[in-house]
Amino acid sequence: MVLKSDDFLANEIIGIIGAGFLGRTLAETLIEHGFPKEKLMISYGGKPSTLESIKKAGLIGNITDNKVICQKSTIIFIVIKPQSLKELKNLPFTNNSLVVSCMAGISSASMEGALGIKVFRIMTSGPDTIKRKKGIVAVYPQNDTLINILSFLNLRVHELQDEESIHVFTVGVCLPAALLIANKIGLNIEDSIETIDKEYCGFREIYYWAKNVLPVFDSEKAQTNYIEHMSTEGGITESIVNSLKSGDTFLDSLRKGIARSKEISTFAMFALTGDDKSND
Ligand SMILES: NC(=O)c1ccc[n+]([C@@H]2O[C@H](COP(=O)([O-])OP(=O)(O)OC[C@H]3O[C@@H](n4cnc5c(N)ncnc54)[C@H](OP(=O)(O)O)[C@@H]3O)[C@@H](O)[C@H]2O)c1
């Protein structure tokens, strides 16, 4: 079924808080798929380089203050890094908007505790896969409007039964970068996938997705750039990549990625109160 934005998004105003790599990709993809530009609001943290990228994406006219985004949007995507979350604490979020966190590792309970409203979570694959219409996304808890929007963006939706599974899914979307390094080193991948699949049914499917989205690179530098683009500083991809580079097995590096996701989760409340541990 092909969804048209005017069918189910006609009355929606979408706000994207955090127009970085992922936030801009969501904004551009929405517009590319027919969502009206005038109904899209975005914000960023003030970095001149980010403003340049927003300009390049043709979205300068969409920049809006976070407070206005909260007041006017019916759907809000939060796409900042966990360590910036404390900056959103006093914004006028309400349950009249569908608020969706795209942040890795931060539980809906932490978000709800911080913002005082119900928060849905999604975990997307990297911006490059979304741009190539090959993205996947996990959703928790289930919400029809959200699933419709994500499907409209050509993302293959995985509806999670429990929030804990998001940690394993997150490692799954980091697999493209991990596979590139593991293949280069010559590590045993299949057995590790098998092991994780026994704990999280569906991991093998994500592995096949990851193999399918691996681009072909014309140089070592292009491959290094790709891995860097996949990584958020202090995030899960970075922890898997560092683990592989330090000589761990593929299974151990995946386990470290899962552990890092859980660790970021426990740091969430520190991030909200300004404790620097969130940046570790
Ligand atoms: N990139 C991925 O592949 C990926 C995949 C899945 C999930 N995620 C999650 O998505 C989130 C963003 O990742 P990213 O890679 O897009 O990082 P990013 O490029 O650093 O984007 C984060 C953006 O948030 C902006 N920001 C900071 N404080 C803000 C504030 N108070 N109000 C509005 N915007 C603010 C930053 O603006 P400035 O640049 O001006 O500081 C930056 O542009 C992370 O939580 C990550 O876990 C990322």
TrEMBL record:
The keyword Transmembrane helix does not apply. InterPro entries: NAD(P)-bd_dom_sf, P5C_Rdtase_cat_N. GO terms for biological process: L-proline biosynthetic process. SUPFAM superfamilies: NAD(P)-binding Rossmann-fold domains. GO terms for molecular function: pyrroline-5-carboxylate reductase activity. Keywords: Oxidoreductase. Residues 14-105 form the Pyrroline-5-carboxylate reductase catalytic N-terminal domain. Belongs to the pyrroline-5-carboxylate reductase family. This is Pyrroline-5-carboxylate reductase catalytic N-terminal domain-containing protein.
